[in-house]
Design brief:
This protein is of the alpha+beta class. It contains five helices and ten strands; from the N terminus they run H-H-H-H-E-E-E-E-H-E-E-E-E-E-E.
Length: about 240
């Protein structure tokens, strides 16, 4: 389901660009009207749309121009990757800087380790799911769960690390992303996805690295799988 953010992202930077393009950057009346409109418009858009506006300046010049021309829109999106995890210490990658795996249904919905040209994603929430099976060996076929009371302590006490363009964007204990279940499920903060206090941008030309690390001595039985879901708006062709 798409969530279109009309022809451009509503930010002070966009307003300044529009005024400059019209030759009105020094016109006090025009500036006052433009920013009054900006204030009103921002009451009509979602938290994610407003957050995306804050990273507008970090997009490539080609993408900014495509946005200004109305060629790109924002859509709701979930990027995900699922993979087998193993016990023991050390950083282990679900997606590394050399990853060249294709899109695979149920396993990964982005190719290689970058987003394609024109796609830029703001990660505003993250959800993790875990699965264990004595017989299933394919992570695309596992039955995943987000309830922590079914997850081994070695997993809950591990850590998730995400880097974009070689820069660390997130490092948190895995337990923070799982639903404790029971009566806690009724609380807004426990609907499965953890809303990030500091959302981060995955730009189209930057490598994505997603890794986990379990405690030393932590053991897992059977076949174990982890699915990482990154929620938030993404730029897409306005077709």
């Amino acid at each position: 389901m798409s969530n279109t953010f009309s022809s451009m992202f509503i930010t002070p930077e966009v307003a300044e660009m529009a005024l400059a393009g019209l030759g009105l950057q020094n016109d006090g009346t025009a500036r006052k009207a433009a920013f009054a409109t900006l204030k009103h418009a921002n009451k009509l858009v979602s938290r994610e749309q407003l957050l995306f506006g804050t990273v507008y300046k970090d997009l490539t010049e080609d993408t900014r121009q495509a946005i200004m021309k109305g060629e790109l829109q924002l859509q709701d999106n979930v990027l995900f990757i699922a993979g087998t995890i193993t016990g023991g210490s050390g950083l282990k990658y679900l997606v590394d800087e050399k990853n060249n795996t294709p899109i695979t249904v149920g396993l990964k919905n982005f190719a290689n380790n970058k987003l394609p040209a024109g796609q830029n994603k703001l990660v505003t929430s993250i959800m993790l799911e875990f699965a264990n099976s004595a017989t299933i060996t394919d992570p695309a076929l596992a039955d995943y769960d987000n309830i922590s009371n079914s997850i081994p302590a070695a997993v809950l006490n591990g850590e998730l690390q995400i880097k974009v363009g070689g820069k660390e964007k997130l490092e948190m204990q895995l337990s923070q992303f799982f639903n404790p279940g029971g009566s806690y499920s009724a609380l807004p903060s426990y609907f499965g996805a953890l809303q990030l206090k500091t959302p981060f941008l995955i730009r189209e030309d930057k490598n994505i690295q997603i890794a986990y690390q379990l405690p030393a001595g932590g053991t897992l039985t059977g076949n174990n799988f982890l699915k990482v879901k990154m929620l938030g708006p993404i730029t897409a062709p306005n077709s």
